[in-house]
Amino acid sequence: MSSTLLEVTRSAHEDVERLERLIVKELQREPASNRDHLLQSHRVRNMIDTIISTSHKLVEIYEDKDNARKDEIAALGGQTASGVNLFGAFYDRLKEIREYHRRHPLARVIDPTEEFEELLKEEPHIEFSGEEAFGRYLDMHELYNEYINSKFGEPIEYSAFLDMFSQFHKVPRHLKLTRHYKDYLTHLLEYLISYFERTEPLKDLGRIFSKVESEFEDRWADGKIPGWENKDMDNGHVQSQESVIDLDYYSTIEELMEVGPEKLREALGARGLKVGGTLQQRAERLFLTKQTPLDQLDKKHFAKGFRTSHQNGGSTVLQQNSQKEIALLEAKLQRMCEFVMERIIQTKENVEKKQALTYEEMEAEREEEEVQADSESDDDERQIYNPLKLPMGWDGKPIPYWLYKLHGLGQEFKCEICGNHSYWGRRAFERHFKEWRHQHGMRCLGIPNTKNFNEITNIQEAKELWEKIQEKQGLNKWRPDLEEEYEDKEGNIYNKKTYTDLQRQGLI
Question: Whole-angstrom Cα distance, residue 72 to residue 95?
């Protein structure tokens, strides 16, 4: 019965609308835990993918490249080769419907809503490694090994690698123009994309990267990419910002030798020349490029595998394109690192924490986290019946109503001196004047916490009252030893002198 093209079209539209309602229903539900939130996002992502694929099929039907839809509409209108026959088309369709129900007398009407409701109950399969802990941390050990075993890397700890793997501007320019560095960036970007798609399935990476590329093109044209500022060609080669040596300032080889062996090495490497030899040999080799273009130098001066533009016409353009590709990879990685920066910090903290634990302690902690996550999920699923909106007690349940009325817990008192802290009930409000929080607030204001300031919760009112007391008694007449109050553990009130004496004697 649903074999006709128009019926398939109607069914596809119905499926799209039903999936849209399910997505709204799913997003209105508050997830109980991080795991539940991740599963919810993947369920919504799967439904969105189904909508997209169904919409593509509908577009193909409406394009009607084979004229099948047009022929079917014409057949419904009774158009035949001999003319229009409306009644004939109607009775043929009626005969087809009767024949279907005759062959299937017990056919059950299936409610598609039930089938789609099952989508809200399924648990998507998400692949995470053990180190990633279901998306809580990053697992970059393979990339770390690739980094420390490369020429552009350095032997550092894994925790230090998590701090500096996104600092691409620290890598020298001549080391960036290698195949190994480009492969490393590609692997790093592939992992971060995979991790981001698994933890944030509702984000559109395509739109993010298109924006990155458009911004990159403008900055690249202006030469404002960090680490790639000086990308202009000079004598047929590319100079990096770190290794630029302006040979116009040097008239002899001896003056050039004063730059130092490391600077000469970087400048030679940026030009593709050999970097070995003594200090004088390096200076002589570099000084040759002052008057002689690179494509006219003898092959013996170049490093192994380097090709000049004369040897390979267009290698300059290829080198520029290679630089741009590497710089674009770095720009994309920078944006990805911004998105997962919180997870990077959590990963580093977890690594440092695990270094102080034994294997048994790590296993026990992992099992405890799983049990805690399950218990939190169960507790959140239980709805607490609290129609009177009573305050919650220490056990997370509403306090008894008689206790609520007895202590006036429904009345809220706020004290600005205590940092706008709220006190529920008159009794708690009266006692807080003798607590450490209020005493500390008064001390910060430079006002003694005496009984004169009871019931004063506003900072401005307290300052005005203290000024009036000073005007009445004089600035030097307040005696803190006798007037400043202290409270012991049992709630007894003493002045400062008595409290200090009893404390020295060990009585309080």
Answer: 17
Q: What are the φ and ψ backbone dihedral angles of 221, each rounded to 5 degrees?
A: -65, -35
Lowest mean pLDDT segment, chosen from 49-53, 398-402, 403-407, 444-448: 403-407
User: How large is the average pLDDT for residues 115-131?
Assistant: 79
Looking up tokens 């550092």 gives 156
Q: How far apart are CA 31 and CA 40, in angstroms?
A: 7
pLDDT of residue 191: 92
**How many residues are there in the chain?**
508
Task: Give the rounded percent of residues in the chain with a pLDDT score beyond 70.
Answer: 82
- What residues contact residue 195 under an 8 Å CB cut-off, 6+ apart? 132, 135, 138, 340
The Cα 267–Cα 241 span in angstroms is 10
Measured CA to CA, the distance from residue 472 to residue 466 in angstroms comes to 10
Long-range pairs, 422-430, Cβ under 8 A, ≥24? 424/391
The residue to which tokens 């320019």 are assigned: 173
**How does pLDDT run across 303-317, given as a tens digit for each residue?**
765 554 444 444 444
